[in-house]
Amino acid sequence: MKWQNKGHEFDDLASKYIDIFCRKNNCIYVFGAGVHGQNMVSILDGYHCFERYIDNDERKQEQGVAGKDVISFQDYLEQYKKGIIVIAADEKNIPEIEQQIQRAGLEYGKDFWVHTEFMQEVFPILSLYYFDILYMDLAQICLTERCTLKCRDCAHGCFAVDMDKEDMSLELVKESADIFFSKVDLIREFVLIGGEPFLYKDLELVIEYIGKKYRDKMIVYSITTNGTIRPRETILDLCKEYNVLINISNYSGTVKRLEEQYRQLTEYLGSHQVSYTIGNEQLQWMDYGFQTMDRGGKEEELVRVFDECRTLCREVRGNKYYYCVMARSASENLGMNVGENDYLDLNTLGENEKKKILEFNHGYSEKGYIDMCNHCHGAEAIKYPIPAAIQKTVSKITRGLI
What we know:
It is built from 13 helices and 15 strands. It is 35% helix and 16% strand. The longest helix has 17 residues, at 115-131. The relative contact order is 0.13. An eight-stranded mixed β-sheet has the order 10-9-8-7-6-12-13-14. Strands 3-2-1-4-5 form a five-stranded parallel β-sheet, sandwiched between helices. It has a two-stranded antiparallel ribbon with strand order 11-15. The chain is an alpha/beta fold.
């Protein structure tokens, strides 16, 4: 979307959301006291607007969850019937809960929302305009483009990066965090990524610097790894101190030798009481088409592709704030030189800077697209499945790491 009224694009929508929120007694009920609901409440608690859980599980109603009250939907209707309801449940259960709420005469977008739309579209606007807090979902610092795997179809193009390529300097990493958090008040997840971030020689200094200065601005502070490297104990000590989550991508379905490495790594992390997640086996990726797609640079088409994509993967590099981390890294790593100026300069925003960042996060920019959209399948990438993590070569560095 092209900026038409920069710094004021959401004024009318914000008035609508604030009106609903105030008429609903400035409180939110979370329907679903499972993982999704608890994650959402960890954010809402800081705003002091979470009222109660609603859940159909009678055991949870009797016992509560993590010290929070849980009521039935019938109790909500009979005793409370105030507050916005946000459904925070597994995707397969959401339609049934929606029907349950609608049968009671409540309307979507007025009385209730589903958590994905609410937390990504509605809440950031309400957060800034009502609470004066710039909240966003996800942002990353890419410490290195080097990787221990050479995945043929890597969406970041890391297979094309030599192991002797220079990483982001420690000074630039610190500058990136300082500038970002001077603007952003709260983020759901802040991620250190690569390439493979455990290759970064100053990782301890990065974890400590960001953790010490900005941990209270992050709900989740994480590192995403391919699981091929056993991190140093000094790294794990800092991960434990600053509650850093290690997210392990699971490519064992394609790269069979990784299965044992993952077993050893998770055992190692567990023995050091470091929080981690390991994904399900990724057998398929999506082909974004970076190396083959050419849309001919038609503006109308590029705007359409961009608006339909709505990726959440922001990246900060110094004062440069990129909408799509894959677009930046793939262009650079593959030598495409596309979209070098497709970023928001966090140092030159001027008046209403937080509202401009909010708008950028929601897809507003001067052009209404980024140049890499010309070489990307965008949201339609799902129609182009490819095998995950097929290796171009067996990198020497992956042998014997764990």
